[in-house]
Amino acid sequence: MEVKKHFARAVPLAIGVACAGLIGTGSAANESVMPSASAPALKICAAANEAPYSTSKGDGFENRIGEVLAAAMGRKAEFVWSDKPAIYLVRDQLETGNCDVVMGVDTGDERLLTTKPYYRAPYVFVERSGSPLDITSFDSPDLMKTGKIAYEPGTPAEVMITKLDLFNRNFNYIKSLTDYKSPRNQYVRIDPNRMVGDVANGTADLAIVFAPEVARYVKDTGGKLKMIVVPDDNKRADGEKVPFHFDQSIGVRKDDAELLGEIDAALEKARPKIQAVLKDEGIPLLKPPSAAASKS
User: Fold this and answer.
1) Hey, which bits of 64-223 come out as E strands?
2) Cβ atoms of 270 and 28 closer than 8 Å
3) 271 to each of 53, 104, 114, 120, how far by Cα in Å?
C-alpha cells in the first residue's frame, strides 16, 4: 500500500514508521466464533488485481487473513473490490465509507488508526540457489559482480542501489520491467512474479523485494531460488537509517476506534490461524525489535 516500504500497499516507503510489538499469545488464542446472523458483515477494502496480496478470486493471502479475522469477530467477511491499485484503497474506498477495513498497512500509517501488528516481514535478496554469488547484505563484495538487479523504484532497495552507484547500470533494465511506462501522474507497479521469473531464468542475477510480494513465487520454483533476509542496519550516505523490516497492521478510519478495539481483540484470538496462512505463503517472519532485544 504507498514512499514505499514496498510502494505496493497502503503508503509504503515507510521510512520512519513506528514499529510496535507483535500480537501476544493468550488462553483464547485458539478460539473461533461462529458468525452471528445479526452481526454486520466486516466490509474489507480489497484490490481485485494485486496478487499475491489480494485478488477477486479470493486467493490472495490477505483475503485469507481477512476471512480468518472476520470469523474471529463472529462476522462474515464482505470484500469490497476495486480495480484500482491497492495504494488507492484508503482514499477512494475507506475514506468514502464504501468499506471499513484495509489489510496490510504499515503500523503507524498516519492516515489511519492501525492495529497491533499481526506480522513483521523483511526485504529479501532473491537469488538462484546455485549462484556463485555470496550476497547476504549491502556490504557484500559480490554485489558489484552482479549483472541486472530487479527492484521496485521508490523503495528502500533503490536508496541502497543508488548509494552503491549501481543505479545507472540497472536503469534501462528497471525501465523495461515497467514496460517503459512513466510514473508521472500514475502508479506503475512491477509484477513481483516477473522479477522472480527474471532471476529464475537468468535474465537478472538478483532481486531485492519486500518478502510478502515474492515469497509465493519463490516457493513455486521448488527450490530453484532462495530468499536471504536483508539486514536492517542500512544507512544512507548521510547516515540516516534506511529500514528494511516492517510491521504490518490492519487499518480503519480515524473515527472508528471502537472497530479498532474489536479487531485488536479478534487478532489475538486468530493469531495461530493467521500465522499458519503466512507460513503457508512462505513469508519469512521476524520478531519485533523489542523481542529481539530482550533475547540479546
Assistant:
1) 77-82, 101-106, 113-114, 119-128, 149-150, 206-210
2) no
3) 18, 15, 16, 13
pTM of the model: 0.86
Residue 3 is which amino acid? V
- DSSP-assigned beta bridge partners for residue 146: none
pLDDT tens digits, one per residue of 209-226: 999 999 999 999 999 999
Q: Tell the residue number behind the cell numbers 543505479, with chain if given.
A: 167
Closest CA to 177 of 192, 155, 160: 192
Q: Within 10 Å of residue 46's Cβ, how many Cβ atoms?
A: 28
Backbone angles phi, psi at 235, to 5 degrees: -135, 150
Domain annotation for the chain: domains and CATH numbers: 42-119+247-295 (3.40.190.10), 123-242 (3.40.190.10)
* Terminal-residue alpha carbon distance, the chain: 33
The DSSP code for 83 is: S
Judge whether 266 and 118 are in contact, CB under 8 Å.
no
CA angle 17, 19, 20 (to 5 degrees): 145
pLDDT in tens, 84-114: 999 999 999 999 999 999 999 999 999 999 9
Residue type for 149, please? Answer: I
Distance from C-alpha of 12 to C-alpha of 67, rounded to nearest angstrom: 24
What one-character-per-residue DSSP string does 119-157 give?
EEEEEEEEEETT-S---SSTT-GGGGG-S-EE--TTSHH
Place of cell 514499529: 19
